[in-house]
Write a structure and sequence with these properties.
Layout: H1 2-15, E1 34-35, H2 41-45, E2 73-87, E3 92-109, E4 113-134, E5 140-163, E6 167-188, E7 193-219, E8 222-231, E9 234-248, E10 259-272, E11 275-284, E12 288-297, E13 301-303, E14 313-315, E15 318-327, E16 342-356, E17 359-373, E18 380-391, E19 399-413
Antiparallel strand pairs: 1-4, 2-3, 2-19, 3-4, 4-5, 5-6, 6-7, 7-8, 7-9, 8-11, 9-10, 10-13, 11-12, 12-15, 14-16, 15-16, 16-17, 17-18, 18-19
């Protein structure tokens, strides 16, 4: 067990820096980047539904109360690839990126408790935007190139307890951290030098969640479940350095500073309100499941962020509705491997809290997934895909049509066994 724990901790440390390179969307320009789904591959395959999932050998992240249902030590790591096609009124382009999404370990305790610890991608930043100005003779006189990279991670620890009357309760604490770089490269016609405005910031903060769900047996081992989880209001501090440099007036992708015009400490605060998830579902263990989640939150309050322009963007109330299900023909089939595969599908509709101008950014899509058993044990190779649409092809906005591929390996074992021979 000690060897397994050491190997896992080493992997945690090795992927912590890699988690930053995972976005190529212009919408990651705002705030501290695009928020990650914070869902397992299994949940994503069901339309991002997972508030009342109850599995003895799989981790779900929507509700910390689910950790109490674990009967096997479960360790899982995941990555993915996203291909996005951007379009506006005139042009369209395609980009792709790949990266780490989460690493987690779940440990059952005495059959009615569970402990989970993990590292997740929390937000991601990755954009390159070019703003151009032309004079009356249609000559290019000025360009502003906006670039950004980085993001934040979420290291969490959760505990859950299964009460005697079919009620699971759980709590979770998380430390959010990461670094973000934003820059503006300004060039003007017939000017000897250009300017480079850079902000290197470091985000830190804590987050706490609690959740519960109740299951009721209807008949023939079919259970109805209802639950809720809450992420309490919290603040993230964004601190760093803001600098302005003169650089050569050329097309150099990475301009080198010639002279520092000014530098100062940069400080900003993002205040997150209470986030609630209400969930219902019905299913039969190791056979089928159908569920729905409704997520809602008031607008985020940002103060002092580097592009804090209320006329450009603001945060408003957000909500997401998701529905999904899974089906396993025969969980313990020996003769037919296809019977042991779990098939998933779902859809979601999301009104994000980001409003640009007078338009609230919306996101909707469908998803599919499978869990492929590894050998004859309960470990699984999980795959999920999303086909979705975000934004709008109108005004100064971009429309994103995306294809997400997610992959995770879930390994299961019994770490703590009673001795049968003395």
């Amino acid at each position: 067990m000690i060897k397994k724990t050491f190997t896992l901790l080493t992997f945690f440390l090795s992927v912590a820096g890699f988690a930053q390179k995972s976005n190529s969307s212009p919408y990651s320009f705002f705030g501290i980047g695009d928020p990650a789904a914070l869902k397992s591959v299994e949940e994503i395959g069901m339309g991002k539904t997972g508030g009342v999932l109850d599995s003895p050998y799989q981790l779900s992240f929507t509700n910390p109360a689910s950790y109490a249902s674990l009967l096997y030590t479960t360790y899982v790591f995941s990555g993915g690839n996203r291909v996005t096609r951007f379009s506006d009124d005139n042009i369209s382009e395609t980009s792709s990126h790949a990266g780490f999404t989460y690493l987690a370990l779940g440990i059952p305790i005495r059959g009615n408790q569970g402990l989970a610890v993990g590292l997740q991608l929390n937000t991601s930043v990755g954009y390159s935007l070019l703003d151009t100005d032309f004079n009356e003779e249609d000559i290019l006189v000025q360009t502003n190139k906006y670039t950004g990279s980085g993001g934040t991670n979420r290291f969490y620890m959760g505990y859950a307890y299964k009460l005697p009357f079919h009620l699971n309760i759980g709590v979770e604490a998380a430390y959010i951290f990461g670094g973000i770089n934003n820059s503006i490269h300004n060039r003007r016609l017939n000017v000897q030098y250009a300017t480079l405005h850079e902000v290197d910031s470091y985000v830190r903060g804590y987050e706490f969640r609690a959740g519960a769900y109740y299951s009721y047996s209807i008949k023939n081992n079919i259970d109805f479940r209802a639950g809720a989880s809450f992420t309490f209001g919290h603040k993230l501090n964004d601190k760093g350095d803001e600098s302005l440099y003169t650089v050569e007036n050329n097309n150099n992708v990475n301009p080198s500073p010639i002279e520092t015009l000014y530098t100062r400490d940069y400080k900003a605060t993002l205040t997150y309100p209470l986030k609630s998830v209400i969930s219902v579902g019905v299913g039969k263990l190791n056979k089928w499941f159908v569920g729905a989640d409704y997520t809602f939150m008031d607008g985020i309050n940002s103060e002092g962020t580097i592009y804090d322009d209320q006329e450009l963007y603001k945060y408003v109330k957000s909500n997401m509705f998701s529905v999904g299900g899974s089906y396993t023909p025969k969980f313990n089939s020996i003769s037919n491997y296809l019977y042991r595969i779990t098939y998933r599908t779902g859809f979601y509709m999301n009104k994000s809290g980001l409003m640009i101008g007078d338009t609230q950014i919306k996101d909707y899509g469908i998803s599919f997934g499978v869990s492929l058993p590894v050998s004859l044990n309960i470990s699984n190779l999980n795959m999920g895909i999303e086909l979705g649409n975000r934004g709008a092809n109108e005004g100064n906005l971009l429309e994103e049509k995306y294809f997400n591929f997610r992959l995770s390996l879930s390994l299961n074992d019994k770490w703590f066994r009673k001795r049968t021979i003395n």
